[in-house]
Write a structure and sequence with these properties.
eight-stranded mixed sheet; 14 helices; Aspartate Aminotransferase, domain 2; Aspartate Aminotransferase, domain 1; binds pyridoxal-5'-phosphate; four-stranded mixed sheet; about 425 residues
């Protein structure tokens, strides 16, 4: 290793004695790339600084939220101001309506929105509401799509045809997952057949309308169109899980890009500006089922927390009033083209799949359209690539099956240094060193 990581290593040893696996969320443990995780001391703009004093250009952005860059001054100011007025009341505040207005303004498909504290809570609640609204039990998800650690959604099964769900995790009972039907992403025919056969038992179809959680996978327009038509025909609630894509791929998320309105939407990550806040919403007819307007129970002590709504509302206002999306697109194209060229020039077959500031370089000879094709990627090469870039001051997501993100705070120079790091890695790799 060309850089010193001793303090991170010691911190990880300590954490492992206290916390399962040393981390509070498994994606942080570097399990897919080996070695130990870097412990972060602070972050500013486009950069992460670890305990050993190394600086990295950050391509995780807290796994999505930090679209304005770390420690954005106006966002921090809003949080400090809110903290001085008290950190939680358990009573309503005006900032909850302020952020709800911003969300509904960005997503015309939503007429009402409920604030929660994590993306998991948002998808779990959306499923419950869809079931309550339709009085049906079953749900359809797609293998490779991640919707948080909700029991009924921790199923990916991953075979080509419609499969009854088998749980991915001990502790998820077959009883919970047996109502989950798993299909392949981008498989319009399977959607049609499943809804024709079982439509009257299906409450909801949930998907990432652009996938980030098997790496970046883009739906065919035909797939989304089929989903919209078939769910409508069978009275099934269509849920777009835009926890990752909302305010990321466009201000109004993937549904704005594709011009398709789902019945319900879940949001998280960017919507909280780096604090724990998420949301679910949809047509008023559906959302008015939620207690106390209706009978579907959902609640939270810290829901709509004053610090989180302050950070989230300020972030959304900054995105609305001075949209970064053209800038992010131009940087994204530069980075994507550069990484792909670096790989190809050194004989590595790769696919660069990207929407704006969200992308994945798959070490895969073929385009990735679903989980079976993603699964054929070269994980070993990815692990080398990851550490090769860490050594060169670039912090990529630590798995082949994650999207990278960058922010408005990243400069052209940061992007070019990243491309150079990749060029250096691939050339070293090609020479077998
Ligand atoms: C991150 C993510 C979630 C889960 O959100 P948490 O805040 O981690 O619970 C759900 N759905 C998608 C698409 C995500 O990317």
């Amino acid at each position: 290793m060309k850089i010193d990581l001793a303090k991170s290593q010691a911190a990880f040893e300590r954490a492992k004695r206290l916390i399962p696996g040393g981390v509070n969320s498994p994606a942080r443990a570097f399990g897919a790339v080996g070695g130990h995780p870097l412990f972060i001391d602070r972050a500013k703009g486009a950069y992460l600084f670890d305990l050993d004093g190394n600086r990295f250009i950050d391509y995780i952005g807290s796994w999505g939220p930090m679209i304005l860059g770390h420690a954005h001054e106006q966002v921090i100011e809003s949080i400090v101001d809110a903290a001085q007025r008290g950190t939680s009341y358990g009573a309503p505040t005006q900032n909850e309506s302020r952020i709800a207005e911003l969300i509904l303004g960005a997503f015309p498909s939503m007429q009402r929105v409920r604030l929660v504290s994590s993306g998991t809570e948002a998808t779990m609640s959306a499923i419950r509401v869809a079931r309550g609204f339709t009085r049906r039990d079953r749900i359809v998800k797609f293998s490779g799509c991640y919707h948080g650690h909700v029991d009924s959604l921790l199923v990916s099964a991953g075979s080509a045809a419609a499969t009854l769900g088998v749980p991915d995790s001990p502790g998820v009972t077959p009883g919970t997952s047996q109502d989950t039907i798993v299909l392949n992403y981008n498989d319009s025919q399977a959607v049609r057949e499943t809804l024709d056969q079982l439509g009257q038992h299906i409450a909801a179809v949930i998907l990432e309308p652009i996938v980030g959680n098997m790496g970046t996978v883009i739906p065919t327009p035909e797939f989304l169109k089929t989903l919209r038509e078939e769910t409508q025909r069978h009275g099934v609630v269509l849920i777009f899980d835009e926890v990752m894509t909302g305010f990321r791929v466009a201000y109004g998320g993937a549904q704005q890009i594709f011009g398709i309105e789902p019945d319900m939407t879940t949001l998280g990550k960017i919507v909280g500006g780096g604090l724990p806040l998420a949301a679910y919403g949809g047509r008023s007819e559906i959302m008015d089922q939620v207690m106390p307007a209706g009978k579907v129970y959902q609640a939270g002590t810290l829901s709509g927390n004053p610090l989180a709504t302050a950070a989230g509302a300020k972030t959304l206002e900054l995105l609305r009033d001075d949209p970064p999306y053209e800038y992010l697109e131009s940087l994204g194209k530069r980075l994507g083209d550069g990484l792909l060229a670096a790989a190809k020039e050194h004989g590595v077959s790769a696919q660069l799949q990207r929407v704006g500031s969200m992308m994945t370089l798959f070490f895969n000879p073929d385009p990735v359209v679903d989980w079976p094709s993603a699964d054929r990627s070269d994980r070993k090469l990815f692990a080398k690539y990851f550490w090769g870039l860490i050594e060169r001051g670039v912090y990529m997501p630590c798995s082949q099956f994650e999207a990278l993100f960058f922010s408005r705070a990243h400069s052209v120079e940061d992007i070019d240094r990243t491309i150079q790091a990749a060029v250096d890695f691939f050339s070293e790799h090609a020479h077998g060193r």
